[in-house]
Amino acid sequence: MSESTARGPLGFGLMRLPRKGLGIDIAQTSEMVDLFLEAGFTYFDTARIYYGSEEAARKALVERHPRDSFTLTSKLHAGLARSEKSAKRQLETSLARSGAGYFDYYLLHAIMENNTERYNRFGIWDFVKEQQAKGLIRQYGFSFHGGPQLLDELLTQHPEVAFVQLQINYADWENPTVQARANYEVARRHGKQIVIMEPVKGGALADPPPEVRKLFDEAAPGASYASWALRFAASLDGVLAVLSGMSTPGQLQDNLATMTHFRPLDSQEQAVIQQAQKILGHSAAIPCTACGYCAKGCPKEIPIPQIFAAANKQLANGQQEEARAAYAAATAPGRLASDCIGCKQCESACPQHLPVTQLLDQCAGMLER
Questions:
Q1: pLDDT band at 315 (very low <50, low <70, confident <90, very high)
Q2: Which of 14, 8, 19 is nearest to 246 (CA)?
Q3: Number of H helices, E strands in the chain
Q4: Burial class (CB in 10 A: 0-12, 13-18, 19+), 150
Q5: Tens-place pLDDT, residues 21-44
Q6: Which residues contact 222 (CB under 8 A, 6 or more apart)?
């Protein structure tokens, strides 16, 4: 085993903050922010479309700590804008909500094949350059959910971007849909730093299937399953930050324990990860990361991520009764998987490119019988 090294590149994703009633629990979020900073970490990630996140960042972070003691990231999502004016106004809105004064990092959000043209048509690339010149943005890049060919084209056309945010985790490393490894290699070939999102795959890798849990338990008794996922991501070269969307103090403490004295995976641990990848390659689980983008515009207000999470209890772990109970809780307001009308707006929004309507039909057949 290698010796402990320097602090790992942990970033605090403000997407899945603790809840209190219908809103974010600011008191608990503040406690978590304080612990994160006290441990020596500084990178916080929010976005305009993360409901309540930018306001929470203002209350828990910006208003309570010196501005030079942290770095704050937000994003512009042209794919969700109705016009060039409304797209560009997102930066102004984010600055007002967060009270940050400027963003250390700013991203063009969730670029993929079906929305690239809108970023070009709205002039967003030139817009962020202008805002950088004004001092409202320190560095800019983009988060990406497309394929390596498009990524190569974008980085060739826009060599000035400082970094790329990619979905990378050991489960998706060779996933032919996500293409994590191929995208990572393209970005590094262009000399870009990488911000890693979904290192724990929306929490799925914190509670992997029984075969994977057994594998990790035998290799490192007592180590959390999430720690394996974080260390896989942080062991890659060129990583600026590994974002973890932490919802509880317990998750934060576990991540701090992993990254405060970060130790890259050694060759034996890499072999264990490869075994886990083989197991997961045969998993029947729906590869949803619970980002919630699919549900935001659903005309029937179906809680799609919650339904998929319920289904995965049965698909991944064989827990039929638990799956039905979780489905009943998720659909208590009366919005069932079978209510889907097949409009497919969810599929155009899904960063994982999942056949959401087909999967909802599968869930209905499995959980509504």
A1: confident
A2: 14
A3: 16, 10
A4: middle
A5: 889 999 999 999 999 999 999 999
A6: none
Say what the pLDDT of residue 22 is: 85
pLDDT band for position 1 (cuts 50, 70, 90): very low
Which residue has 């826009």 as its token pair?
158
* Average confidence (pLDDT) over 327-356: 93
Total residues found in the chain within this entry = 369
Residue whose entry in the numeric block shows the structure tokens 């969730």: 110
d(CA 14, CA 245): 6
Residue 113: both structure tokens together: 């094949």
Contact 168, 194 (CB under 8 A): yes
Three-state secondary structure call for residue 251: helix
- Whole-angstrom distance, CA of residue 33 vs CA of residue 17: 11
Looking at per-residue pLDDT, the higher value among 279 and 4 belongs to: 279
Task: Report whether pLDDT(285) > 90.
Answer: no
Report residue 287: phi and psi, to 5°.
-80, 55
Contacts of 220 (CB under 8 A, 6+ apart): 228, 269
Q: What are phi and psi of 241, to 5 degrees?
A: -155, 145
Q: Which residues pair with 44 in a beta bridge?
A: 12, 72
What's the whole-number average pLDDT of the chain? 94
Q: What is the chain's Cα-based Rg?
A: 20
By CB atoms closer than 10 A (0-12, 13-18, 19+), residue 310 is buried
Q: Is the alpha carbon torsion for 80, 83, 88, 94 positive or negative?
A: negative
Longest dimension (CA), the chain: 59
Give the integer Cα–Cα distance in Å for 108 and 90: 11
- Identify the pLDDT of residue 2: 42
